[in-house]
Amino acid sequence: MKLLRARGRKPFQDVSKHSDAAIMPGHVILVELDAEYPVSFSRKIVQQVIRGEWGCQGLLVTDDLTMGAACNRGLCDATVRALGASVDSLPIAFDQDKYFDAMHCAQQAAQCGALDLSMLERSSARRLQPFASQ
Predict the structure, then answer these.
(1) Residue 31: exposed, middle, or buried by beta-carbon count in 10 A (0-12, 13-18, 19+)?
(2) Which of 80, 89, 114, 131 is 20 to 30 A from 41, alpha carbon to alpha carbon?
């Protein structure tokens, strides 16, 4: 854990504090931080570490949700968990037809109250922010 803090996360932490660059949490599991979920949809890591400890309020973009590391856990689960963690953009590039499945899952989760609507509104603001200054 010390090595991870000292070396592995430092570049990302520095970028999140000193720029408006988007960060892509990968579909990797950091057992030291969350043994159950990949970073890309780990509420614990995104909220406590990236948004909390690092103070990152910039855009977070997952890797492609149709990649095996995410999709094999269930596209619906990955979609809802990523949105619930406050990830802002969830690309679906490899299998574009899965986009409709992911949107349906997100819509159902929002309708039944499984997603924090104020968090989704902040996410929308982050996605639009780069275009506001133009």
Answers:
(1) exposed
(2) 131
**Nearest Cα to 15, choosing from 63, 45, 59?**
59
Alpha helices in 59-116 (DSSP H): 68-71, 75-85, 98-111
- Return the bridge partners of 23, or none: 60
pTM for the whole structure: 0.82
| CATH of region 2-128, choose from 3.90.1150.10, 3.40.50.300, 3.40.50.1100, 3.20.20.300 | 3.20.20.300
| Local confidence band at 34 (pLDDT 50, 70, 90 cut-offs) | very high
For residues 37 and 91, give the distance between their C-alpha atoms in angstroms, rounded to a whole number: 18
Strand, coil or helix: what is 116? coil
Q: What are the tokens at 5?
A: 């803090």
Q: Which two tokens stand for residue 72?
A: 């094999």
Alpha carbon distances (Å) from 103 to 28, 60, 75, 115: 23, 18, 10, 13
